[in-house]
Design brief:
The chain is of the alpha+beta class. About 20% of the residues lie in helices and about 45% in strands.
Length: about 375
């Protein structure tokens, strides 16, 4: 009986369960065409009738992708081909036919092997990542993809920074990136991962420059590439976030409330100041300053390391528009020369009021050391 049970368990393990899970109808981030894309994201549609890019993977070894829209005035593309499951972690696609209708017309038959993809499953979606068959490199690419996704979420919130833009002759994407970084004067660099973004022909590229991670924006302009290097250090942002989290979770910090009489005020205005300090060092690590009047409430939170600000967050609530709070933050790159990165977390933004900030910080230090 034991041997029979073992036989059935072994048989079940040999069935490509993971491969079968790809069968069926999906939404897909980009249509599968002859264009090389490093990552596709597929997920089950929430509604039976939904618009956008669709993928069907069939038991017969064929696949198809197509685009739908609510409005008929659009370019509708359909592609088809075959696929081969290499193992439970890898799939290879062959694109055979592409057809267009609506506001674009034409058919083509690429008959092209678009390469091997690593299958990374998550709870609500599957990532298909370009692969060379090295499973360890595949797993590293999952990390790189997540890094770019995190960067994009942050990049959408910051003030626009003028990047270093160049048009580069269109060769391969990798060669274009190498040419661009060489023109900027870098010698130690390498391209790590490319993630397409919503607009067709546009990608964010994770690169290594002089042992640091940085990010490029690349747009396919037909005969050339338009490439930009983001000129802020995202690793610095993440390190700052970790320090802020550490301060917020520090249970040894002691809260000291400072009397509002310490603040100049008039009429119905009043202030509250709470300073968080290490008892043994009497060092200020966090300050919460609240300003109240009949028009607004402004809360400014300061985070300090070695008593120097690293991050300042503001929440500004207008009483006439309480449903539209203003929230922003300043990542302090260099406090002495007023260098910072402004993050807009909600509507509007506040000014970097260095003189006011310094007064609050100095008052906090003075009160806890007396």
């Amino acid at each position: 009986m034991k041997n029979i049970l073992l036989f059935f368990i072994t048989l079940c393990l040999k069935v490509p369960v993971n491969a079968q899970s790809l069968l069926g109808k999906w939404k897909i981030s980009h249509l599968i065409t002859e264009r090389t894309i490093d990552e596709y994201i597929i997920y089950k549609p929430e509604e039976e009738r939904s618009y956008g890019n669709h993928l069907s993977i069939n038991e017969s070894g064929t696949f198809s992708t197509h685009y739908t829209a609510e409005c008929g005035n659009d370019c509708f593309t359909t592609t088809s081909g075959t696929y081969k499951m290499i193992d439970e972690n890898h799939i290879r696609f062959f694109i055979k036919n592409i057809s267009h209708s609506g506001e674009c017309e034409g058919n083509s038959n690429p008959n092209k092997d678009i390469g091997l993809y690593y299958i990374h499953r998550e709870e609500n979606r599957i990532q298909l990542l370009k692969s060379d068959g090295n499973i360890e490199k595949d797993k590293q690419n999952v990390i790189y993809s997540k890094m770019i996704a995190d960067f994009l979420n942050f990049e959408r919130t910051i003030r626009k920074i003028e990047p270093q833009n160049k048009r580069i002759e269109k060769t391969s994407e990798k060669d274009a990136i190498n040419a661009y970084l060489s023109e900027l004067g870098y010698t130690d660099f390498g391209s790590l991962f490319s993630k397409p973004i919503e607009s067709y022909g546009r990608s964010i590229i994770l690169v290594r420059i002089e042992q640091k991670h940085q990010y490029l924006y690349l747009a396919d302009m037909g005969k050339s590439y338009y490439i930009s290097l983001y000129d802020f250090d995202y690793d610095f942002i993440k390190e700052t976030d970790l320090l802020v989290d550490k301060i917020n979770s520090d249970k040894e910090l002691k809260a000291i409330n400072i009397n509002e009489a310490s603040f100049p005020h008039s009429g119905d205005d009043f202030n509250l100041l709470t300073v968080f300090t290490k008892t043994e060092k009497k060092s200020v690590e966090k300050i919460i300053h609240q300003e109240f009047n009949k028009y607004y409430e402004l809360t400014t939170i300061y985070y300090l390391v070695n008593e120097t600000p690293i991050y300042i967050e503001q929440n500004y609530d207008m009483k006439r528009a309480s449903d539209r709070p203003v929230q922003n933050a300043f990542y302090i790159v260099d406090w002495n020369i007023n260098k910072y990165i402004l993050k807009k977390m909600n509507l509007g933004s506040r000014k970097f009021e260095k003189e006011k900030f310094e007064k609050i910080i100095e008052l906090s230090k003075e009160k806890i050391k007396n």
